[in-house]
Each structure stands twice: as C-alpha cells, then as structure tokens.
Amino acid sequence: MYEKNRLKIVMSPYVDTCSSLLRKVAKEKIVFMNNLRNKLEYKKKNTA
C-alpha cells in the first residue's frame, strides 16, 4: 500500500500508545491527534 501511494494519512490518538508496527508501516504519513489538539478542540465563543 505504501509503495503504491494509496496511503494518504494515518491518525493515531497518542504517540505513547501507538504501536511500533504502525509507526514502521506509516512512516512519515502518521499524524498524532494529541499534536492537533488546538485545532480540534471546541472553543466557546465570547458572547459578552
């Protein structure tokens, strides 16, 4: 899959709990969700 360029991105929740096999297969296409926390978290709008 990696060689055929079919793998776009792999998302894993945390760096610490990600399997070593997944890291080896996904290489630089793996994204950890804890690194995206600022982009993904809900922020309340200030209504004052």
Structure, described:
The chain has 48 residues and is an alpha+beta fold. It has a domain at 10-40. 23% of the residues lie in helices and 12% in strands. It has helices at residues 20-26, 37-40; strands spanning 10-12, 30-32. The protein has a two-stranded parallel ribbon. The longest helix has 7 residues, at 20-26. The radius of gyration is 15 Å and the shape is elongated. The termini are far apart. The mean pLDDT is 80.
Number of helices: 2
Radius of gyration: 15 Å
Mean pLDDT: 80
Helix fraction, binned, reads 10-25%
Summarize the structure.
The chain has 48 residues and is an alpha+beta fold. It has two helices and two strands, in the order βαβα. It has helices spanning 20-26, 37-40, and strands at residues 10-12, 30-32.
Give short descriptive properties of this protein.
48 residues; alpha+beta; two-stranded parallel sheet; 2 helices; elongated
Produce the secondary structure layout.
Layout (H helix, E strand, L loop, with lengths): L9 E3 L7 H7 L3 E3 L4 H4 L8
Parallel strand pairs: 1-2
